[in-house]
Amino acid sequence: MNRYITRGIANNLPNILQHQLWQLVSEREQEQTKDNTSVDYFHIFQFNKHRNQLY
C-alpha cells in the first residue's frame, strides 16, 4: 500500500515521530481488518507544543 504525507509533515516532523505514527496507522488497519470492518485510510493526528515539548 502506498502511503502519503503532506510536505509540511515531511519537512517539520522528526523522522522518528513519523515512523511511530505509521506504526499506529498500521496497527489500526490490522485491527479493522481483523474485525471485518472497512479500513479508514484518512488519519488526522493533532499535536500540541508547550515549552518546546510536543504532546
TrEMBL record:
* Pfam families hit by this protein: DUF960
Q: So which domain of life are we looking at?
A: Bacteria
In its UniProt entry, what is this protein called?
A: Uncharacterized protein
Biological source species: Staphylococcus pseudintermedius
